[in-house]
Design goal:
Aldehyde Dehydrogenase, Chain A, domain 1, six-stranded mixed sheet, 2 domains, about 40% helix, 12 helices, five-stranded parallel sheet, 11 strands, Aldehyde Dehydrogenase, Chain A, domain 2
């Protein structure tokens, strides 16, 4: 099977997603009905998944699956030898493991996939769709829910605690092991209401559960949050989700009991903290003095930060719209795979 065939299968998959949320082809109506059913089941299985956020995630994936984007990823080099790559998937946002599977299959390797129980339906559907478009890919896709064996390399995504286990168990293999990361936004006080509204998307998309979601603001001293709160009011719908509301209410209760200072708009708690990763329902902030202070902070925490949003960085509203060559944790997955 040639690289061209693999690219074509992924391109057709991206087109299918676009048509699913637009004008559906009659000839693929059964497949679209199948995806509708899978999405419904995924949203029932995981209350963090909603129809709106699944759509957002899938369309973001589709934007990567144009022939131009796929060729951009593959243009440098290909693998010399086919290996089996164990993929231990996260499940925090819909189809979050798709990029790792994409890179593994496009590079010519076999993907041995261990799904997260939080996202066990969407990815298998799209891999079946890939095989529908290119049957020879089936031999390169395997799933397991047991102890993994028979692999040559590992890509594992999890928490800081699970990463320690991954290091112990998989350390002898070529590996990429990802830990907790969060994203930050830099404000200087000159942001417009439109900028801050777009920042709301970076904060609230997927209920803030993604590593590319902004969980901390870096702001000048004496920064006033009035315009910020006014600008994000359209995202109040997040509190209608029971799991988000329970987290928000819990964090609020804890802070009240401990007499901690915080700002609150009835769906988001804003609190001054040196930590980067904020719990669901909260957003941390910290003051900086000048550009040198800011640069020092970013350097000190570079291994904890996934994405930086702000002027001169990722534009407001685009933290969850990575291009195909935006690799998690800054580790080039493609180079890792083709060098095996």
């Amino acid at each position: 099977m040639s690289l061209k065939q693999r690219i074509l299968a992924f391109t057709k998959t991206g087109l299918f997603i676009i048509e699913h949320y637009g004008a559906r082809r009659e000839s693929e109506n059964i497949l679209h009905q199948g995806l509708d059913k899978v999405i419904d089941e995924a949203c029932l299985q995981n209350p963090w998944f909603t129809q709106t956020f699944v759509k957002e995630s899938l369309l973001s994936l589709a934007s990567m699956l144009s022939e131009k984007e796929l060729q951009k990823l593959c243009e440098q080099k290909e693998t010399n030898e086919q290996k089996t790559v164990a993929l231990i998937c996260a499940g925090n946002i819909p189809c979050v493991a798709f990029h790792d599977v994409l890179c593994t299959l496009l590079s010519g390797h076999t993907a041995l996939i261990k799904l997260s129980s939080d996202d066990a339906l969407l990815l298998p559907f799209f891999l079946k769709l890939l095989v529908h478009y290119e049957p020879s890919l089936e031999q390169n896709i395997r799933f397991t829910d047991r102890k993994m064996n028979g692999f040559d390399a590992v890509i594992a995504t999890g928490s800081n605690n699970s990463a320690q286990y991954f290091e112990q168990y998989f350390g002898k293999y070529p590996h990429i092991i990802r830990k907790n990361r969060s994203s930050v936004a830099i404000l200087d006080g000159s942001e417009s209401k439109e900028d801050l509204k777009a920042l709301g998307l970076d904060i609230f998309l997927y209920f803030g559960l993604g590593c590319r979601n902004v969980s901390k603001l870096l702001v000048p001293k004496e920064y006033q949050f009035d315009l910020f709160f006014e600008s994000i009011i359209d995202y109040a719908f997040v509190v209608n989700n029971n799991k988000y509301a329970n987290n928000y209410e819990y964090q609020r209760a804890i802070l009240l009991l401990e007499s901690e200072k915080f700002l609150d708009n009835n769906f988001l708690i804003l609190r001054n903290s040196a930590n980067i990763h904020a719990p669901t329902g909260c957003l941390y902030y910290e003051n900086y003095n000048d550009k040198n202070d800011l640069a020092s902070y970013l350097k000190q925490h570079e291994n904890e930060i996934q994405c930086i949003v702000g002027k001169g960085y990722t534009p407001f509203g685009y933290s969850q719209s990575p291009v195909i060559t935006d690799f998690a944790d800054g580790i080039n997955t493609w180079d890792f795979l083709v060098s095996l």
